Predict the structure.
Amino acid sequence: MRVLVVTAVPVERDAVTRAFGGAPETVAVPGAEPHRCGAFDVLAGGAGPAAAAAATAFALAAGASAPVPYGLVVSAGIGGAFTPLTPLGSLVVASDIVAADLGADTPDGFLPVTALGFGRDRFAPPPALVRDVAAAAGAAAGPVLTVSTVTGTAERAAGLLAAHPGALAEAMEGFGVAEAAARAGVPVLELRAVSNAVGPRDRDAWRIGDALAALTDAFGKTAPVLEGWNRHDH
């Protein structure tokens, strides 16, 4: 099975490809240049859900005619954590990929797009795959929020947790990747390494290097699980 891994920026892409060793092959497809490492194609699709969705859609369309099409899409990178259960440098696998700010602001609070009667605001990756990847990587499993604006205040962090109890982390691309994968009929997973706490913005407290190292380690441990996973076996 081939696996498409979608990151936001080149430094995340490179962290993932380091897990596979050797020099990756660069593959030209419309809108992106994935790095091919055996069964894994890893691309930097851009920051935010729109760029991530577009890059994923292009890559899936280009791969649909390949002898072995993609059987799984993984949104991967670094992100912020909400709880002490996910400290800096730890890993999170999304049990739900949630569009946290897709909806409407009202006098009574935020309404997700589903409450407005159209669209969807979450995707659920295959539970067995979430379990297996979390076990292999030593990761926590729980909802991961997709936001278009990184949280920078305690008030905003509290508001997100109130609206999405149990959320473990936030990032900016998962829902976009999931939307494109769902339209192509391909299962999706989201894997994040924690670089910072969600709340008041303090770049000096971020541990991006540690998070990128954790991301490399995670793919080193989970590659056999991802490559060998078969949606029909679960």
About this structure: The chain has a mean pLDDT of 91.
